[in-house]
């Protein structure tokens, strides 16, 4: 059974890098994991979150841009909101599962710091209010703030998808909202905090850029070399900041008191401009130097990451749970054998979840194709809609 989706029009670069982002999220969330030292966040002014959001926008643009042309705004917006609801349900399920996992581990192992670090200690102090706030997405424990952002971005997309007919207008509205955040710190309210950890009013700009790259791709400039050089310089600056300046307090202090302080200002919540330009520079170089039909994307060694990227929701949720188990294991033994064990088990666990999700999807499609129909009209309609559903399924 073919678990990885291949087609002439499918861009496996998106699946591969989305899978890589999911792997980075897993490694970065485990304190003491040696593989976390070689993730994107150590060498650039951006990390897996930017990769994930940009590609989420790209996937949404591919999936729903075609539907907008075929079925109009109301039907397409309803489909987007249905996807937002799926993400919301997944987040609530993950919240319950992760809360049970952390609180049980904290009690069994007498590690109260688990509750404090994950911000789940309020479950004991004010359980009824905390559950209500979690349902309203105003209470987001540590590690559980990406899916609420994704839900908010999909709702924003549903409200603005009609502007895809005028891409420049959509870009202008999105950029204006981003500027408002930069100057006013506009954010959604959170329980016990000033706002969401990932400000959706800021991050929507990166999401919309991904949408527009899918639905209204820019023409390649006649002379792309200057942009190549600018992108490389931007990434080199990020590498210097992350590997040279930030680890040395005296350099960090000098930069903090100089006009260059914006280079070392960490504002992940509001997606500060250097994070934004870093991920765009990285995207430009990937598009320029990795061909759409690159043979290595269909190779066996790339297949695991492609599989993860094509089943991102299941893999992300499973990765959060597996990551906490790996953290507990490393606290008892952080030597090389345990490092190998937690990363191999995490990799195989996430691949297994991706394969299971792909198998269910493949099985359901086969049942749909083989199901008896009441009339020839119904059969023809189902056949006509099937390719659209296949293309729309972005994992």
From TrEMBL:
UniProt KW keywords: Membrane, Transmembrane, Transmembrane helix
InterPro entries assigned: UCP028704_OpgC
Keyword match Transferase: no
Pfam families cross-referenced by the UniProt entry: OpgC_C (PF10129)
Keyword Plastid appears in the UniProt entry: no
Transmembrane segments: 85-104, 146-164, 169-189, 201-218, 230-252, 272-290, 302-328, 340-360
PANTHER family (UniProt xref): BLL4819 PROTEIN
Protein name: OpgC domain-containing protein
